[in-house]
Amino acid sequence: MTYHLLSFFLRLFSYLPFCLLYIISDGLYFLVYYIFRYRRRIVRKNLTESFPEKSEHDIKEIEKKFYSFFTDNMLESLKMFTISRKEMIQRVKFMNVEEVNALMRSGKSVSLFLGHYSNWEWMSSIPLHIDKNVIGAQIYHKLSNKNMDRLMLYIRERMGAVCVEMRKTARYVNELATENKVCIIGFIADQSPRKKDSRHFLHFLNHNTPVLTGTEKITKHYDFGAFFLDVKRVKRGYYEARFVKMHDNPKSLPDFELTAIYYQMLEKCIRTQPELYLWSHNRFRNAEKL
Question: Where are the domains of the chain?
Fold first, then answer.
């Protein structure tokens, strides 16, 4: 009953036009930033430590832009309940997709490295741009609230993607490989490992940061191609996402090199539009400031 009520109201809300959603977002920004001060301490700490070269004024400007984008991102994600495939194609332009399709036509699957950057939820529309015989999947972290988890699965799969729970990743990929099925799998690979699992560290945003290496291991073990998704926000509600090949032969790389390449690419994106990163997450809790 709770799920159906929640689904009804969120779906009804998502029918609002974008122009009205952004007016609501401006109001939410004021409440979240000035009144509730949602995670302001964590955001300020992350920004200050990540950009020691920036002045206090610059940090505050990025902070405000982040919260403005944060509320936009929430409402854009809700819009996925009802947005049409045609409009989604107009709002997210994927570039260099032909190189990815050509590789998959040759029978090679692809690992797609993403981050908590820009509107990652809208990137689930990638299946609209790849060949129909290719499986488009994304790895997700199951939410503790069953109703919210069910709702998020619905919107993430509306454009044709298959959601795979994180703990089932290895089994799922192995099944596809055994059946010789070609796939492109999106990994939001900048997840923060638990302290006991923090075994490999990389320099990332002025921190010696613990990183997960599972995406690299899967990519190399199954000889997948490796692409990074370089996303830019053109304006409110419009994005450009470019597929960037990370290496011609990932399997040949030394251990952890592919992960290092990913973090270098992600940091370059963040430094271009820093307000688009998820600064409210305490991802440096087990890191050391450089």
Answer: 2-289
